[in-house]
């Protein structure tokens, strides 16, 4: 696609488990074309053996960074320097920074100041400052569990209703729900309706870690339908007749 955005995927191998590589690449590809794929670490260490097994399979370029100081993650500086080089020399629209380390907070802020889209990914232990510095932040262990659960259901062919499984590692569901009601009050049309896609975009901008899968829902539609105070409906657009989903409060 001509207008597809280009992203640089930079992974801190010292602070993210290789078991998440499938989730990382799946989420990354949803944003656009991943033109740069680099992973940073000391590849002479035995601890990196699991990462080495997936480098070729996922087309990751290993960037060697020796640990000159005991107990210090030397990959941070290499990844930060590379990110700034890419910013000034490569035609990318954004960066996907994968780490659970708060040391990348300032980098994310600096790249956003340059007008780049910044997607963060990390485990639930990732400090809040780094999460907030990104436009969107994906919590890998939460998504990993959700994907495992979905695979298990498909394998067993069991059709169970989805239930919220909130984790303390994300913005509280009560806070999300209150924000939704507030947005409906502020942005609805004369009949109280708001496009679901617009609502989702507003939530994402307000809470960088918002993802309906964090709360046990595979789609935003199912999340909205689970709230008894809301109703949804499909309508056709006047321009091309495409069906879109709208949501509003009941008993207006």
Automatic annotation (TrEMBL):
InterPro entries: LOTUS-like (IPR041966), NYN (IPR021139), OST-HTH/LOTUS_dom (IPR025605). One of its GO terms (molecular function) is RNA nuclease activity. Transmembrane segments: none annotated. It holds the Pfam family OST-HTH. Residues 172-249 form the HTH OST-type domain. PANTHER family: HTH OST-TYPE DOMAIN-CONTAINING PROTEIN, SLR1870 PROTEIN. This is NYN domain-containing protein.
